[in-house]
Design a protein that fits this description.
Blueprint (H helix, E strand, L loop, with lengths): L8 H21 L14 H57 L2 H13 L14 H9 L4
Helix pairs in contact: 1-2, 2-4
Length: 142
């Protein structure tokens, strides 16, 4: 512990943190580290100036973070809106298919859901798109 910056272990941590903050924030502000380097002979005014620069840099970081967060929130809001619309479409399609399915098909589907097996395609033709089903069922009936 030879450094003039500290006299006890707690002061060492504070000194190291301050030196790190100064060099990090100096790079953010685009100034030379040597021009804001803290030494033991610095006056109260230079400490205040350094603190002001640190505060400015923190404000800059905060504003950049807030901007990035706002952008991400907008993207997420748009994704939520699209997912809600997609969910609504799928619910409508599901209701239509339930209404058009025969009781036997519904019972078979429930049995498959309960057993956890995938729908079987043996002997059954693939389901028609909802638009085709609706057109078939809304046609003239004999």
């Amino acid at each position: 512990m030879n450094s003039p910056c500290y006299s006890v272990a707690m002061d060492l941590g504070v000194c190291q943190l301050r030196n790190f903050s100064i060099s990090f924030l100096s790079s953010l502000l685009g100034t030379e580290t040597s021009s804001v380097k803290l030494d033991n002979s610095s006056s109260g005014a230079s400490v205040v100036a350094i603190d002001n620069k640190i505060e400015q840099a923190m404000d800059l970081v905060k504003s950049h973070l807030m901007y990035a967060v706002r952008e991400e929130v907008e993207v997420l809001k748009e994704q939520i809106k699209e997912l809600i619309e997609r969910n609504s479409q799928l619910e409508q399609e599901n209701n239509l298919l339930k209404n058009l399915a025969s009781p036997e098909q519904l019972a078979q589907f429930q049995a498959q859901v309960q057993s956890g097996s995938p729908p079987s395609s043996t002997g059954a033709q693939p389901p028609a798109p909802p638009a085709q089903l609706a057109a078939q069922n809304s046609g003239p009936s004999a």
